[in-house]
Structures are given as structure tokens and as C-alpha cells.
């Protein structure tokens, strides 16, 4: 399992958690999430589409294109205020970094880690 951590500003508070669901073609699934469930599209970059609940924008989920490019796609994203502090703690505890700490062109700073959940292998 992989987890992405991204930062928006100040201290080390968790701001939101977003599930990232693998999809062969995220854009074709948009109709179900928008027209049936009532989500709004918060971001569409082609390879990832993020949906937010109207009136509760922190309730989000993303569809991420599954492919074999070698770029890791996290199973969930945890947005924190200080990704640098989280990254330092992950390194200190020897978690495997699968995507280096990066300033992305769309305005976030993120990293991804391989973790174990509930005793299951990564």
C-alpha cells in the first residue's frame, strides 16, 4: 500500500484524507460520481479526477489512472500542513520512500511511502 502526503502551509495538522481508487479510465467514470452520487469535480488532470461533496469539500475521493508507467500512485492521500516534518519522521522511522519529496507543477509538495496496514504486506 502506498500513501501520499502533501502540504498546504503552517503546522503539522491533518487537513483531509482522500481515497485514490485505481481506474483504467477515470474520465469515463465521471458520470456515475457526478450524476448518480452528486459529487462535484474538484480537479481533473486526465490521469486523476478528484470529486468533492457539495457543501463539504473536505469529503473527497479520486480516481487515478492505473497504468504501467512506473510512477507510483498512492492508495490514499493525507493532506497535512507540514509535509517536510512528516517526511523527516518517515525517514527517521525508515519507511520506504517510493516517490521523492517533490514540488509538483500544480502547486502541491508531496511524497509517497510504502507502508503496511493491519499487518498485511505492502
Defining traits:
46% strand; disordered C terminus; 14% helix; eight-stranded mixed β-sheet; mainly beta; globular; 122 residues; 2 helices; single chain; 8 strands
What features would you describe in this structure?
A hairpin with a 5-residue loop joins strand 7 (96-103) and strand 8. The N and C termini lie close together (5 Å). The chain has an 8-stranded mixed beta sheet with strand order 3-4-5-2-6-1-8-7, with helices on one face. It is globular. The relative contact order is 0.29. It has 122 residues and is mainly beta. The chain is built from 2 helices and 8 strands; from the N terminus they run ββαββββαββ.
So how many helices?
A: 2
Assign an overall shape: globular
The largest β sheet comes out as:
8 strands, mixed
Helix content: 10-25%
Q: How would you classify the helix and strand content by structural class?
A: mainly beta
Radius of gyration: 15 Å
Distance between the termini: 5 Å
Query: Largest sheet, order of strands side by side?
Result: 3-4-5-2-6-1-8-7
Brief sketch in words of this structure:
With 122 residues, the protein is mainly beta. The chain is built from two helices and eight strands, in the order ββαββββαββ. It starts with a strand and ends in an 8-residue tail after the last strand.
Summarize the helices and strands and which ones pair or pack.
Blueprint: E1 2-7, E2 14-23, H1 30-36, E3 40-44, E4 48-53, E5 56-65, E6 76-80, H2 83-92, E7 96-103, E8 109-114
Parallel strand pairs: 1-6, 2-5
Antiparallel strand pairs: 1-8, 2-6, 3-4, 4-5, 7-8
Amino acid at each position: 500500500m502506498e500513501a501520499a502526503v502533501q502540504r498546504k502551509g503552517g503546522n503539522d495538522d491533518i487537513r483531509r484524507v482522500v481515497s485514490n481508487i485505481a481506474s483504467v479510465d477515470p474520465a469515463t467514470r465521471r458520470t456515475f460520481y457526478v450524476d448518480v452520487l452528486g459529487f462535484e469535480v474538484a480537479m481533473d488532470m486526465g490521469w486523476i479526477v478528484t470529486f468533492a461533496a457539495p457543501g463539504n469539500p473536505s469529503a473527497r475521493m479520486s480516481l487515478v489512472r492505473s497504468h504501467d508507467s512506473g510512477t507510483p500512485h498512492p492508495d490514499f492521500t493525507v493532506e497535512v500542513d507540514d509535509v517536510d516534518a512528516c517526511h523527516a519522521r518517515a525517514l527517521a522511522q525508515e519507511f520506504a520512500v517510493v516517490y521523492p519529496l517533490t514540488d509538483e507543477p500544480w502547486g502541491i509538495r508531496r511524497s509517497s511511502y510504502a507502508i503496511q496496514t493491519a499487518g498485511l504486506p505492502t
